[in-house]
Amino acid sequence: MLNRIIFSLLLLLLFGASAHSQNTVYIDEDFSTMDSISYLKKCKGITKKCLQYKTDSLTVNKLSPMYRFGKLKTDEYNQIKTLIQSKSNNTKENKYIVIKYYDSIFGFERAEKIHSQHFKYKFPGNVEDISKAEKIETHPFNLELFKEERADWQKRRQKCIEKYENHYPLDFIHMYNAEEKALNTYVDFEWIKDQGAFKNKFFDIQNNYNLLIIKSDGEYFLSGGHLANSRFEKLLKTDDWTKYKADLEASNTKKFTDGKGIFSKYEFYHNSKHCF
């Protein structure tokens, strides 16, 4: 919650200072401003995430950690467990709570707008004048294709839920912060609406983290990057996360530029079946 307040105030201050000109600013993990060269160097870190936020007159580049470990107090964990059980059909006493978080789920109109931004230019002859170029769609998109993609996504997510809830003692929750007339595009798929508690505690910076694993002892892990199924499963199979915390700390150093352990560089993520 505090991070989001600081970030919001910083945006307001920067926006006010740049109201009459286009500015680009760079912000470190501790919300201090930095120069672009240092920012780009840090962006290359395998455990770093670089986010960009734009207004009409300001572009903010924010450096954030891609992964984070933490520990909840007993009362915090009990409140979260009670909240999840009150909203979910699964009321078993499980060892883990796993939340896949979406800041926004949207319908066809928003998807169509996003798709329209993906195109390539076709230039006539040897002319490279952008004003004379023709915009070409990279791939077709319409309402029927949107429905097919949404149904396919739902089928894949359902398989992920069944795979892990059948083999591990966990509740696998899909949660959203806001939705744009989109819930009716999902059939027999359970979403839980975040009333602000999870946004404030874990997902305070937009698009930073998207996966949360909470153990029954209150320890938790946040991921904002690609996490292969095998690496996710290692976290579930081990009560003691000390090794993984050490691997993350090492991955943040220059000594391990390609990361270490479950945070090491993973070449084939996009070519493999995965849930996270």
Automatic annotation (TrEMBL):
**Identification of the protein by name:** YARHG domain-containing protein
Q: Supply the alphabetized keyword list.
A: Signal
Organism per entry? Olleya marilimosa
Q: Which residues form the signal peptide?
A: 1-19
